[in-house]
């Protein structure tokens, strides 16, 4: 039905698509068929509970921004410039399909690399690019930039992604937020934390390298050096064993390797951990004692402490704590990283997984820089990448090793099509730019990491200008390339309907009416009281890293401080964390005026003693660097970090920095064991007054 025929104004249900575990259920004020007003969290959803982050609440700034792309563009100037002219959709698609066909005919289909990530979390408009990839035989993508490092650590012990229901935090007496900043990045966590504090007097503890807004709101902040969380976790378990808080009955029934772990941890004292982590031994002792005494103790794992070369080992160590303490036995106890292992969505139609060609190479998205410059070992075994379609991501700013990324995107022999909502820095390197819809202008289906609701929504408003959805573009290209696939002739709603039904869920119309479906398994399964989905059926204290991933050889199995991080040296004495800025989400919202005003400018947080020793003060220009390059920022003198830690909240566009290169110029594209990924928070730097 045309949206002009619907009643307006109205409050319309939707789902936030952005790369956040919450996937918030929304209520959107539709003023007319083309215009939205305020966006709120759905009050009747028991996870979202009427709350949404400020970024999305003011989404009208983004969807109605005057700089939104509305027509296809053809580059007429150098790559990286703003020199484009408008062209018709037919010409744009002919150019893209033609370039892909010529490249594949010359070097084989693997020379084409469709590249994407999580600019939308909708399964149809995020993952549908894999349909184009699989039908045409183009190079695969290891989509590892966000979740792979933490997933490897979680499944090494638990066997499957899952854990305590996030809503149980409201029933906890101790909540430990480890390596996350939900006030800025996943606000709904705080709804349930606040309820537990008000109704149960729960204590809220945050483990993080700096005093984030979440740490500011906590009862206790454990300020750990970057990359040393595993040492703190080991010391906590040392105390649990030493002081009789280990749940021997639980260990015997539900875990594997407890005796070896206890012997191993005998020397991992709080004093040992203090020397490594900078966290006072007395604070570790007190936290371990409190954790040991509290049955309803919930550890909520974030992504931050995993984005390190030893990230999976750190996650495994933290995930072992509730197994030692037997906290899985108790409601409001246990741990959670994500729940998306509870969904059973069959994406065969969306991704054409039945068309995957055996032996097709898979390229590492986190190493897009070395891939495009020909320095990656996998790409060197076959043809270079000479054609790309990029959707849902902005690697020119967000990928590690920016200098190589920009060098690769600037190649004259690389044909690049970018499908985007704004002319991002990646889009400025494109030969053809296609205008994309926002989530409000198409239908989609969502799974979540932070809650167990399967969500479906229809479009809320008409797309402006000539904007087209990812799904539409993928099918249009497949038709021009002479391909055949059942999804090619389906609308988004039809594809969602078919996917839901083959997955055993209600169809599109029913799900739009219901808005969401709780797919939680039983409480016993969430708490692994029916067993862990591992080889032994128990929590594995000795991780088999080689079984988890191809880079796991030589990594010790038992929880420990695995010292493979980018260690500080006399030449690079500071460890840098590039944590998310509160008003940005990767580079989304960097174009909206309120977010830019609130973030002001790129800054580096520096301890007062460090700033004094280096001779600069608050607001001074500071240069950070390492062997990869350097950037200039303004100092924010701040006692909420350790003296050897610096924090740069990101991701700012490169253009926001005075020399035109952003913070990811300093981050490495090295692959963490055992499965690869990105080590954004594992960077040693030097620093001086600029």
Automatic annotation (TrEMBL):
Single GO term (MF): iron-sulfur cluster binding
Cofactor(s) of this protein: Mo-bis(molybdopterin guanine dinucleotide)
Matching SMART domains: Molybdop_Fe4S4
Sorted UniProt keywords: Iron, Iron-sulfur, Metal-binding, Molybdenum, Oxidoreductase
4Fe-4S Mo/W bis-MGD-type domain mapped to chain residues: 9-67
InterPro entries: Asp_de-COase-like_dom_sf, MoPterin_dinucl-bd_dom, Mopterin_OxRdtase, Mopterin_OxRdtase_4Fe-4S_dom, Mopterin_OxRdtase_prok_CS, Prok_Mopterin_Oxidored, YoaE_C
CDD domains xrefs: MopB_3, MopB_CT_3
Family recorded in the similarity comment: Belongs to the prokaryotic molybdopterin-containing oxidoreductase family.
PANTHER family, alphabetized: OXIDOREDUCTASE YYAE-RELATED (PTHR43742:SF6), TRIMETHYLAMINE-N-OXIDE REDUCTASE (PTHR43742)
Full protein name: Dehydrogenase
Organism: Thalassobaculum fulvum
């Amino acid at each position: 039905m045309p949206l002009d025929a619907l009643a307006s104004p109205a409050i319309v249900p939707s789902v936030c698509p952005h790369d956040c575990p919450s996937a918030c259920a929304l209520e959107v004020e539709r003023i007319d068929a083309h215009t939205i007003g305020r966006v709120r969290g759905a009050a009747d959803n028991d996870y979202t509970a009427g709350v949404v982050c400020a970024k999305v609440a003011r989404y009208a700034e983004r969807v109605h921004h005057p700089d939104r792309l509305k027509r296809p563009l053809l580059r007429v100037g150098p790559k990286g410039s703003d020199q484009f002219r408008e062209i018709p959709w037919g010409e744009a698609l002919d150019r893209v399909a033609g370039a892909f066909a010529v490249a594949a005919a010359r070097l084989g289909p693997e020379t084409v690399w469709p590249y994407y990530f999580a600019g939308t979390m909708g399964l149809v408009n995020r993952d549908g690019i894999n349909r184009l990839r699989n039908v045409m035989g183009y190079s695969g993508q290891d989509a590892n930039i966000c979740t792979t490092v933490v997933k490897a650590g979680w499944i090494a012990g638990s066997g499957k992604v899952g854990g305590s229901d996030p809503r149980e935090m409201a029933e906890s007496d101790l909540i430990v937020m480890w390596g996350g900043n939900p006030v800025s990045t996943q606000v709904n966590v705080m709804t349930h934390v606040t309820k537990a504090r008000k109704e149960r007097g729960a204590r809220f503890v945050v483990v993080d390298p700096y005093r984030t807004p979440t740490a500011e709101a906590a009862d206790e902040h454990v300020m750990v050096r970057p990359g040393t969380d595993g040492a703190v976790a080991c010391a906590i378990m040392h105390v649990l064993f030493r002081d009789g808080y280990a749940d021997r009955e639980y260990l015997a029934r539900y875990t594997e390797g407890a005796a070896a772990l206890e012997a191993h941890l005998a020397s991992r004292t709080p004093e040992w951990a203090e020397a490594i982590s900078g966290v006072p031994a007395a604070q570790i002792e007190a936290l371990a004692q409190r954790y040991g005494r509290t049955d309803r103790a919930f550890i909520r794992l974030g992504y931050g402490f995993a984005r390190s070369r030893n990230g999976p080992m750190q996650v495994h160590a933290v995930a072992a704590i509730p197994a030692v303490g037997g906290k899985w036995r108790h409601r409001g106890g246990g741990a959670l990283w994500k729940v998306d292992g509870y969904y059973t969505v069959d994406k065969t139609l969306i991704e054409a997984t039945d068309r995957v060609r055996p032996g097709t190479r898979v390229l590492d998205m986190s190493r897009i820089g070395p891939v495009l410059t020909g320095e990656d070992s996998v790409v060197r075994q076959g043809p270079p990448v000479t054609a790309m379609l990029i959707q849902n991501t902005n690697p020119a700013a967000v990928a590690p090793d920016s200098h190589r990324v920009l060098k690769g995107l600037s190649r004259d022999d690389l044909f690049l099509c970018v499908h985007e909502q704004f002319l991002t820095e990646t889009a400025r390197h494109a030969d053809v730019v296609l205008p994309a819809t926002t989530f409000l202008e198409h239908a989609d289906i969502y799974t979540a990491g932070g809650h167990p609701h399967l969500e479906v929504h229809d479009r809320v408003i008409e797309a402006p200008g000539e904007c087209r959805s990812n799904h539409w573009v993928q099918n249009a290209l497949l038709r021009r390339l002479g391909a055949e696939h059942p999804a090619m002739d389906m609308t988004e709603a039809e594809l969602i309907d078919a996917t839901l039904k083959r997955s055993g869920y209600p169809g599109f119309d029913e799900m739009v009416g219901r808005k969401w479906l709780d797919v939680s398994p039983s409480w016993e399964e969430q708490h692994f009281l029916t067993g862990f989905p591992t080889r032994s059926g128990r929590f594995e204290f000795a991780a088999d890293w080689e079984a988890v991933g191809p880079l796991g050889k030589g990594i010790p199995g038992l929880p420990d401080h695995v010292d493979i991080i980018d260690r500080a040296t006399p030449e690079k004495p500071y460890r840098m964390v590039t944590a998310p800025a509160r008003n940005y989400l990767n580079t989304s919202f960097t174009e909206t005026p309120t977010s830019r005003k609130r973030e002001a400018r790129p800054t580096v947080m520096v301890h007062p003693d460090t700033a004094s020793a280096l001779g600069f003060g608050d607001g001074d220009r500071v240069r950070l660097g390492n062997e990869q390059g350097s950037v200039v920022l303004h100092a924010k003198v701040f006692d909420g970090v350790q003296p050897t830690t610096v924090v740069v909240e990101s991701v700012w566009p490169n253009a926001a920095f005075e020399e035109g290169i952003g913070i990811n110029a300093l981050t490495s594209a090295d692959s963490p064991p055992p499965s690869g990924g990105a080590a954004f928070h594992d960077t040693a730097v030097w620093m001086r007054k600029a």
